[in-house]
Amino acid sequence: MADSEVAVCVDAGTTVIKAVVFDADGRELMVTRRDTEVRHPSREQCEQDMHEVWAAVVATVREAVGRVGRPVRLLAITAQGDGAWLVGRDGAPLRPAVLWNDGRAAEVVRGWRADGTLERAFRTNGSLTNAGLPNAILRSLAETRAHTALTCGGWLFHQLTGVLGIERSEASAPWLDIHTGTYSTVLTDLYGIDPAVLPPLLTDQVHPLTAGDLGLPTGTPVVLAPYDIVTTAFGTGATAAGQATCVLGTTLCTEMLVEAPDTTGEPAGLTLDFGVPNLLMRSFPTLAGTGVVDWLVDLLGLTDHAEATRLAEQAPAGADGLRVLPYLSPAGERAPFLDPAASGLVAGMLFDHGRTHLARAVLEGLAHVIRDCLDAAPGRPVELGLCGGGAASALWCQLIADITGVVAVSTQDTQVGAKGALVFALTALGDYPDLTSAAAALVRRSAVYEPDNATRDLYEAAHAEFLETRALAATRWSRWR
Question: Which contiguous run of DSSP H or E holds residue 185?
C-alpha cells in the first residue's frame, strides 16, 4: 500500500457498525460508526432489519471516505457470524435476520442432543451446534421460501460486489466436513436441511466494488475477511498454531489456533476453517460477556463500565467469598458446555457484602468462564491476547491473567477486529506473503499482564468452587426457567 493511500475496514458488529481508516503503517486514522437496532419480538428472539444494517455500512463508509480525503486502496469487511440472513432468488431479504444470540431454536437443539444428532455431527464437523447457528434456526423457522441462507458478512459482500457466497469460516459451523473443507450431505441429512439453501463457498474473497453511494470508485477491491471472531485473533497478532485470543465483548470468545482438526473428544465449541493450509481455529464463543457488566451497571445505578471497574478495585481478591455464575443470557450457554436452560447465580452472599464485592465477583466470574474455555481448548497457550471493549479495564485484564494463569497482552489498537481484517486483506492482495508477516508489521502491543503468584492458590480454589457450584446449579436450571 502506498504511503498516500489508506484502507477502509468495516467491522459490522451486532449493535454497532464501524468503518476504520488505516494508513500504510496500519495506524488508525479515524473511526466512524452507526448504531444498529436489535429487535426482540419475544424474550428469546433477536433480529435485525437487513436493509438497516446495509444502510449503516453505507453511511459509515461514506463518512470515513469523505473525512479522510485520501486515495482508498481497499475496502475490507468483517462481520458478526452465525445466525440466518435469508435472501430470495433476487438477492432481496425474505425476513429480518435472525442473529447469533437468538434462542428460538432451543427446543430443536434439545431434540438433536437427545437423539444423538449433535454428537454425530461433531464427529464430522468439529463444532457443537447451538441455537444461534443457521441449521437450528432454519429448522425452527421451517423456512421453505429461502433461496440462500447467508451470513451478515455474506449479505454485505453481496450488496457491495453482487457476488453471492459464503466465506469458509462462516460456512464451517455447521455445514463443512472439517477434515475435507467441503460441504457435507451427511450433515445436511442429519439436520434435515435441504442443501439447496447453502450458498456457494467462495474461492476468491477479493472482488471489485459495484455498489454506488459509498463515496468510492467502482472497481475498488473489496475483501471479505473471515468473520469477526477470527479476524480479532489476527488483530491481536495471533496467526500461528498455539496462540490464543479472547474477545471481551458481547460474547466472551476464547479461541486457539491449531494445526489440524480433532473430532474425537467431548463435543464443545466450534472448529473454523479460514482457508490457510494447516491452520484452523478452535473457538468457544460464550453467551456470557460484557452484557453481564451492562446488567451490573443498570442494577447498581452506575454510569458506565469504568465505574464498575472502580468499584471492583475496592474489593479484595476473591470478593470475600461472593461468587457469581454469569449465565444471564435468555438463550442459556453454548460454550464450552451447551445448555439452553443455563441461568445465573449469586452464591455466598452475606450482610457484609456490598456493591464493591458484587462488582468484583462479576468480573471474576467472567474470568472463570474464560478459564473454563481455555481448559476445553487443545493444549495450553503461553500467552492470551485480549481485545474488545472489556480490554479497556486493566483490572479485568489482570484478573483474567491471575485466574487463567496465562500471561495476557493487549494491543495499541482500539478496533482490533478491523485491524485483523486489514491484516487479512493486505495478505490477500499480496502486500505481505502471509498472515504472520502482515501481523508482525501492523500489530503493536500495548500492555502485558503477568499472573500474580500471590493469588494463585486463592483462585485455584475459587475455580474449583466455581465448577462445583455450576454442576449443582445445572440440576435445577430447567426448573428455574
Answer: helix 185-191
The one-letter code for the residue type at 214 is L
CA distances to 55, 77, 153, 224 from 166, rounded to whole Å, are: 21, 13, 8, 9
Closest CA to 228 of 273, 179, 170: 170
Least confident of 320-324, 325-329, 338-342, 438-442: 338-342
In this structure, are residues 260 and 382 in contact, taking their beta carbons and an 8 Å threshold? no
Of 347, 359, 366, which is closest to residue 286 (Cα–Cα)? 366
- The 8-class DSSP code of residue 407 comes to E
What residues contact residue 458 under an 8 Å CB cut-off, 6+ apart?
317, 318
Strand pairing report for 221-224 and 72-79: parallel
Q: Cα separation of 420 and 64, whole Å?
A: 18
Nearest to 71 by CA among 209, 216, 202, 270: 216
C-alpha cell at 221: 477491491
Q: For the chain, how big is the Rg over CA atoms in Å?
A: 21
Q: Which three cell numbers stand for residue 300?
A: 447498581
Every domain of the chain and the residues it spans: 228-481
CA distances to 50, 82, 154, 167 from 199, rounded to whole Å, are 17, 14, 9, 10
In the three-class reduction of DSSP (H, G, I as helix; E, B as strand; rest coil), residue 294 is classed as helix
Domain 228-481 has CATH 3.30.420.40: yes
Q: How many CB atoms lie within 10 A of CB 196?
A: 9
Q: Is 149 helix (H, G, I), strand (E, B) or coil?
A: strand
The per-residue pLDDT for range 257-306, each reduced to its tens digit, is 999 999 998 898 999 999 999 999 999 989 899 999 999 999 999 999 99
Across the strands, what pairs with 387? 247
- Taking alpha carbons only, the member of 97, 229, 206 closest to residue 157 is 206
CA neighbor of 227 nearest in space, from 272, 282, 292? 272
Residue 143 has pLDDT above 70, yes or no: no
Q: 3-state DSSP helix/strand/coil percent for the chain, to nearest 5?
A: 40, 20, 40
Query: What amino acid occupies position 29?
Result: L
- Phi and psi at residue 48, in whole multiples of 5°? -135, 150
Q: Find, among 20, 44, 43, the residue nearest to 32 by Cα.
A: 20
Distances (CA, A) of 469 to 314, 361, 460, 464, 474: 25, 14, 14, 9, 9
Is the Cα torsion angle 21, 167, 290, 136 positive or negative in sign? positive
